[in-house]
Amino acid sequence: MNNQRWLSQNFFIFFFTWGVFMQYWPGWLVEGKGLHVSEVGFIMGIGLIARAVATLFAYPFAAKFLSNKKLILLLVIGSIIITLTYIPANSYTSLLIITFVFSLFYPSLLPAIESGATVLVQEGNVHYGKSRSYGSIGFVVAVFIISGIISVFNENAILWCMIVSLFIMLLLQAMPAPASLLEQPTAADRKGSYSMRSLFKIKGFPLILFIVILLQGSLASYYSYSYIYLQDLGVETLYIGLILNIAVIFEILYLSKAEVFSHYRTSTLLLIAAIAATVRWIMIWLFPSVWSFILSQTLHSLSFAMAHFAFIQYITKVLPKQQLSNAQGVYSALAMSLSAALLTFWGGFLYEIQPGLAFLGMIVFTIPAIFLIVATRNKYHY
């Protein structure tokens, strides 16, 4: 199979499931399982902590012994088995435990696929932005389809959509994968020079990582509370899906042309992303209306996509192949999980006071990022 097509297909189906999980899981726990918003915030936060542990320690360790293809297959199978246990669960405790275990498997699919992408990009076989845009398309399709299904049935359909899409992902693993992703890691690949500790000794990497931790963490309230926020504004379920899709449509537009920005400095891309994120969260707080939220969605292409592309571009150019799984694991754990978990707790507390505050509270990460980038970009030449 063509490498670009393989990567695009895997991004598409994974982010289809990601669209179900990220946008509808909190709503399903509230409407389908009868939990309170504060309980859902705690469950999702615990899930993010479990995700951080898995992607920081378990995923990089497994990647040292298993080929990328085998690792993806095992993670898909584990995710399906655990998802099925949600069916009989109804108590707060059981849902908390299942979500914790589920988060040890399912989210690790993201760094696994991203690691495969960076390997293929280093080999010069694929354009990252082009394939990653198919992931965003899958996210859009999921949000649109699930919104329609919920409007016909109810929030309980969200779980079944997740199960079906994971089975489709399992079937996709039967397709031939690129040869480089079938290679078994060797003993040399596990030597100390390629350890997690040595990764942090690479000049500039800890700084870049810390900046993206701040920027990606600031998306916590958006991911966890947007669905509920729009419900509180009186938006019908079908239209919620359309509104949430706006952000990803602009993300697709950026990623499909992301290579145009490849000649820009990493610090320039990160600075633009930090400013855009700050404006986005202040806008939602200042103007608590559907139209203000819709307008803020256009900034997702900068506040998320540009920051993500900047990090991927950086590690692809700077890191050796053997360090890519470590970098993806620590990025997923700290930037996409742990930082978001901390701000999910913070956002849930603020949401109970006033919904708009949950979004304004995210600038405690974005404003420091702006000052840090400005202060270090010339010193570290990134």
Automatic annotation (TrEMBL):
It is a multi-pass membrane protein. GO terms for cellular component: plasma membrane. Residues 6-354 form the Major facilitator superfamily associated domain. The chain crosses the membrane at residues 12-28, 40-59, 71-89, 95-121, 133-151, 157-183, 204-225, 237-256, 268-287, 299-319, 331-351, 357-376. Pfam families: MFS_1_like (PF12832). The keyword Cell inner membrane applies. The keyword Transport applies. It is found in: Cell inner membrane. It comes from the Bacteria. One of its GO terms (molecular function) is kinase activity. This is 3-phosphoglycerate kinase. The lineage of its organism: Bacteria, Bacillati, Bacillota, Bacilli, Bacillales.
